[in-house]
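FW: tagging you since you asked about this chain on Friday. Here's the raw sequence from the shared folder, copied in full. Didn't touch anything.
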Amino acid sequence: MFTRRIISSLVSKNAPKGARGFASEKELRDRLSTIKNISKVTKAMNMVAAAKLRKHQDALEVANNFSSGLDGMFFEAESDKPAMVLPVSTDKGLCGGVNTFVNREAKSTMIGMQDKNEKFTLFTYGQKSKGNLGRVFGSYQTGGIVDCTGGNPVTFSEACEVAAIIAEQDFGNAKIVYNSFVNIISYDTTTISVPSAEAFEAGAEKKFEAYEEEGDEGGLMKNFYEFMLAVKMYGIINNAQTCEQSSRMTAMDNSSSNADEMYEKLLLQANRVRQAKITKELMEIVGGASAVQDS
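HL: got it, structure written out here
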């Protein structure tokens, strides 16, 4: 169907309304050249994404081993302050539906809060969430983070900077929406709840009453919260980056296959037009020769 649309778009605009026309051989050859160039680009992007994916998978394995020990340490605290929705997306596109699923889940969360008349704010990570959600929930948006790592696997120091910016926001509980990497062809869109530093300190005594505390009692829980948030964001961003590269690799592979299929169909069409032209010329030559002999 897409091929028919391309061919129909090549028909001369000067054709009468309702008339059926066909693309010329030159127009088809120009389109073939364009599709071939697109295929080269998508194949190159596929190879680059595959190389980056291996690097991001290695970084994700380290991040998961580092952050898995903190699973279950965060809790949803009671607070009078508004909740904060934090979608973790990418800065660049051409990576399938990774951003669509995150933005859709974040929208669903915020719409649910609106229906319940709950107060909330929006703080985004990544350009794609900032642009997409900002058009609908711009009045709730308090800020965002973009171009944090420049496409490279996030380091723990960069995750600490991100965590520090998040901790500075005024919220009760944060709903962090991100993609959790499963394998090359699948990922899960996950939402976790993280309390603010103030709410964490208020509920930490009951949460960790089975543990002994050593050190400065005034700043112990604050430091512990900052460390846990940094470790958590380290794992979350690595998951999001790995999902981005795996999805881009799959998307570019599909695009290359579609381009190759379209190229074959248009090549067949171009060859038919060329053959029809040759056949017509031969018929004219034979007809002319027959006319000369009859005369």
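FW: The two ends are 51 Å apart (CA to CA).
HL: agreed, and Residues 220-294 form the longest helix (75 residues).
FW: great, closing this out.
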